[in-house]
Amino acid sequence: GENVEQHPSTLSVQEGDSAVIKCTYSDSASNYFPWYKQELGKGPQLIIDIRSNVGEKKDQRIAVTLNKTAKHFSLHITETQPEDSAVYFCAADYSSASKIIFGSGTRLSIRP
Amino acid sequence: ETGVTQTPRHLVMGMTNKKSLKCEQHLGHNAMYWYKQSAKKPLELMFVYNFKEQTENNSVPSRFSPECPNSSHLFLHLHTLQPEDSALYLCASSQGAGDSYEQYFGPGTRLTVT
User: Fold this and answer.
1) pLDDT for residue B99 is more than 90
2) What share of chain B is helix, strand, coil (3-state, %, to 5)?
3) Phi, psi values for residue B94, rounded to 5°
4) For residue range A56-108, what is the model confidence (pLDDT) as tens digits?
5) Contact check, Cβ <8 Å, B102/A34
6) How far, in Å, CA of A50 to CA of A37, rounded?
């Protein structure tokens, strides 16, 4: 079945620096790759997604890249701010089962 | 707020108790989900309902029993749970039950089984 691996599990960066979170997936038929952010005491919330017909998508300080050949996708956060501290989950669709599979999460901490 | 509410937010129950978790979505969505979130593990999909019909049961033990009376409400009935069932239970909804719809999550119910 589909498997999504996410690294690192924890990440600490200086405020203002960039953060990168990487994921790999196993189902070559996957076409949809969302990223969710979970703040303390809340459920995950979609922050950006990318589909397989593009290699990169950007929304202000957040960008995602996709390499379908290597089955890798990454989240890039630039000019990090304290409010970026949260747990981030990548996910990939498992098209044969009409569901999405989540990675294990990355706890991002922004140091002042 | 995401438009998905869950009650209670915290629940402590013994292994012989019966309790229910409630989820309500105010988004007009047709699909609803239950997920289990344990520490250091990926979100585990438990059940999917689309137009009130269950379309996915991810090999969940029978001590978890879902109920979807309409497209806006979803329940998870719990009985004779085990300590390893302690986790955050998240409800989500989406416009459709396909694999490329954005899912909107509630804040979760933190369950502790003693």
Assistant:
1) no
2) 5, 55, 40
3) -150, 165
4) 999 999 999 999 999 999 999 999 999 999 999 999 988 766 788 999 999 99
5) yes
6) 15
Instruction: With beta carbons less than 8 A apart as the criterion, state whether A14 and A85 touch.
Output: no
Cβ atoms A61, A47 nearer than 8 A: no
Other CB atoms within 10 A of residue B80 CB: 14
**Among residues A105, A19, A100, which one has the least CA distance to residue A62?**
A19
Three-state DSSP at B95 gives: coil
E strands in A68-105: 72-77, 86-94, 99-102
Specify the residue for token string 């196993």. Answer: A26
Of B48, B105, B108, nearest to A45 by CB-CB distance is: B105
- From the number of C-beta atoms within 10 Å of its C-beta (0-12, 13-18, 19+), residue B47 rates as buried
A9 touches chain B (CB under 8 A): yes
- Give backbone dihedrals phi and psi of A84, rounded to 5 degrees, phi first: -80, -10
